[in-house]
Amino acid sequence: MKTTGLLGGSFNPAHGAHRSISLFAMEELAVDELWWLVSPGNPLKASAKDMAPLNARLASALKMARRSAIRPTAIEKQLGTRYTYDTILALVRKHPKRQFIWIMGADNLAQFHRWKDWRKIARLLPIAVISRPGYDVDAFAAPAMAWLRRFVHPASQRRSWTKWSTPALTFLRYRPDPRSATAIRLARPQWHKEHANRCVRDAVTRQLICPDD
Any bridge partners for residue 36, and if so which? Predict the structure, then answer.
């Protein structure tokens, strides 16, 4: 079984904090690969006018993931899934020889109860939560934690996640990283123009993602 971490996001654009957090999680959890699920859109957010096209966001992720075992993919677009549960279910069925773990920041755990079928997500695969400055208190007090708390494994057991029965949750302590996509967009609002006319190859499916996709 090939172990694979899954980290979802808009990657608008991908940046150094995405990479450093991912490499940290890969080391802590001893996974073979980590897939960046570059989302076509976030169901919890209204369509943002500053959301770059999918091909540009995937291109930025591919550039940021160079020389690593991080695999940026637009597989949600190709699967036709909109919600995380549907994506994960499709991946588990499509890749029976892989063992997946879902990785998310504490900010996402704080709103996890708003995700469609969030309990089903927790039953499908283990979850690793990475601390984020300013969000940890809200994450521990989040409605989802009232249910998840009994399934928490200590961080000292993090490399044994492949043996856990689900639901299963663990917390990874990560040093603060101030870099953000919002700051990059403020400094370089036209960052995506360099990728405007590019077709880029998905690192997982090997399909081309073009400007009109």
Answer: 7, 72
Measure the CA–CA gap between 54 and 155, rounded to whole angstroms: 35
pLDDT digits over 94-114, tens only? Answer: 999 999 999 999 999 999 999
Q: Enter the pTM of the model.
A: 0.94
Residue 134, H or E segment:
none
Q: Where are the alpha helices (DSSP H) in 10-125?
A: 16-29, 54-64, 75-79, 84-94, 106-110, 118-124
**Domains, the chain, with CATH or none:** 2-209 (3.40.50.620)
**194-204 residue pLDDT tens:** 998 899 999 99
Between CA 161 and CA 30 the distance in angstroms is 9
> Phi and psi (nearest 5°) for 170?
-140, 155
